[in-house]
Structures are given as C-alpha cells and as structure tokens.
C-alpha cells in the first residue's frame, strides 16, 4: 500500500492520477489535512485518511500499514518546513513504513540563496540519518512556477527581471508521472535521484524570445538590479519574505544551481519531457 500526502494539491493529485494507471485504487491511500476537501478522490475509490503535517498522531494513523509513503514537501519556509518534515519522518518510523519518498529539488544545497533549496538539503540530511529506506526525488524546477513568477511580464510584453542563469524548467505533470513510476517499482530508485529535468535549460532572455514566438508579439527582456526588482515587487503588494525567496531563484541560477539536465526523466517517462515552449503554449499566457 502507498500513502500519498498532500493529495489535494496540484502535485499530489497528479501523482495519484498517474498511479492509477499502474496500480489498483485499493493500493493507494490519499492523506489530506481536511478529508472533507477530498470528496472527488473518495469518489474514485481511494481510501482517504486525515493526516496533518503538524500532528504526529494523525500522521502515524494515516501511515499505518503502508509499504511506502510519499511526502510531498510542505509549502512552508524556513525552520517550519524542516519541523513538519521531521514530524512526518518520525511518524513513518513509528508506523513501520518500509520506504519514504520525498519530493525534493534539483538545486538542493545547504546555504543556497534560494531558501527552499536549503530546506530540501536539510530534509535530505534528516532522511539519511533516519535509518529508514528512502528516495529523494530531485525534481527539476517547475515550469509552472516560472510562468507564475513572470506571467505578468509576458502579458505586458516587458520581462523585467534580475540577472539570471539557465534553468531546466520542467513540467510538473511530467514529474508527477515520473514519481508514480518510481513509486510503482519499490526500491528500484534508492537514495537521492539524479536531477529529474527537462532536456534543456533556458535563460530569461531565451524565454522572452520563446514567448514572442508563441504569443505572436514582442516580449522584451530587460535586466534590472536586484534592489529595483525587489522594491517593485513589494510596492505591488508581495510580502518581503516571498520577494526575498523569489530573488533567491535568480541568485542561485546565476551560480548554475538549476542548469543541470539529465536523461533520467526521459527514461522514466519513456518519451521526451515537455519543453518550456510546450508548457508555455499550453498555458495560454
């Protein structure tokens, strides 16, 4: 039996969708904080269990009898994220889970200027020290996150961003499909995976060119100083903590933290991963 946490989120729902193509529904359990919001999953024949990342007792009950659990990383920052993940790891140990799978990041690195990458490195260290079998899924940077971050610039025709470096932006649904494939073959992928990425890394200047071609109108790329970009974001209403996190994306990309590409994702999918152009075209941005 496999338990998928965060099953009502974008990634969790997609993983379950792809798992259904490989396993019967009675082998899949959806763990959610609020079961009332998981009625659509329940209608598909899944068992729904209440599991709150901050409540060790509920997690232990949610994980009972599981051969594997998939921890979809918490949408939190800093020490809070690390604490929540540690609670899940300990609950898995107490429930006798055979293997933990965790959705990490290709840029996971202690001290990364991109705060979530530092957090992922911390959770990977906790998994390694847990004594449990684990697989850390080094996801490529979600292409959908990029579109959320720069969508306004694409729409207005002026992509004003800090200095950047190449990033192998990767379709979230491709990653969900790969996660399902790894879950369905327990133990085949042990420890930290290779980067699960699209086949090509692109810069913001290249994205502006792609957007111009896809949209049929010019999208200009303009590089602005970090401080100017941050000031504009905060003035537009973005909380300073999130502005700093997003700025960390650009700072880490300059170091090459997100430039890697690897054939592992294509191998898992049995086809080429979606390109950024394809994700952009499908988004209608």
Q: What does this entry look like structurally?
A:
It is a single chain. By secondary structure, the protein is of the alpha/beta class. The chain has a domain at 2-139 and 172-192: NAD(P)-binding Rossmann-like Domain (Rossmann fold, 3-Layer(aba) Sandwich). It has twelve helices and nine strands. The strands form two sheets. The chain has a seven-stranded parallel β-sheet with strand order 3-2-1-4-5-6-8, with helices on both faces. It has a two-stranded parallel ribbon with strand order 7-9. Helix 4 runs parallel beside helix 5 and helix 9 (226-235) runs antiparallel to helix 10 (240-254). The radius of gyration is 19 Å and the shape is globular. 44% of the residues are buried. Residues 2-252 form the NmrA-like domain. This is NmrA family transcriptional regulator. It holds the Pfam family NmrA.
């Amino acid at each position: 039996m496999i338990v998928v946490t965060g099953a009502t989120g974008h990634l969790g729902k997609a993983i379950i969708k792809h798992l259904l193509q490989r396993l019967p529904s009675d082998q899949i359990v959806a763990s959610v904080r609020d079961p009332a919001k998981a009625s659509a999953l329940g209608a598909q024949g899944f068992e729904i269990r209440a599991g709150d990342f901050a409540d060790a007792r509920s997690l232990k009950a949610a994980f009972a009898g599981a051969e594997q659990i998939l921890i979809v990383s918490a949408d939190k920052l800093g020490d809070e994220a690390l604490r929540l993940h540690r609670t899940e790891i300990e609950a898995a140990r107490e429930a006798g889970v055979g293997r933990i799978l965790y959705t990490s990041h290709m840029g996971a690195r202690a001290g990364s200027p991109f705060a979530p990458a530092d957090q992922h490195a911390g959770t990977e260290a906790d998994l390694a020290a847990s004594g449990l079998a684990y697989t850390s899924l080094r996801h490529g940077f979600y292409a959908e996150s990029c579109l959320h971050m720069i969508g306004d610039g694409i729409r207005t025709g002026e992509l004003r961003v800090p200095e950047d470096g190449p990033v192998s932006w990767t379709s979230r649904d491709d990653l969900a499909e790969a996660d399902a494939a790894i879950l369905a073959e327990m133990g085949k992928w042990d420890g930290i995976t290779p980067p699960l990425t699209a086949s090509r890394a692109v810069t913001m200047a290249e994205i502006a060119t792609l957007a111009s071609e896809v949209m049929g109108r010019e999208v200009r790329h303009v590089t602005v100083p970090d401080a100017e970009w941050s000031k504009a974001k905060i003035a537009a209403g973005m909380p300073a903590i999130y502005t700093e996190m997003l700025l960390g994306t650009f700072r880490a990309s300059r170091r090459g933290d997100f430039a890697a590409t690897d054939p592992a994702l294509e191998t898992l999918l049995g086809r080429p991963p979606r390109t950024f152009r394809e994700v952009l075209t499908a988004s209608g941005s």
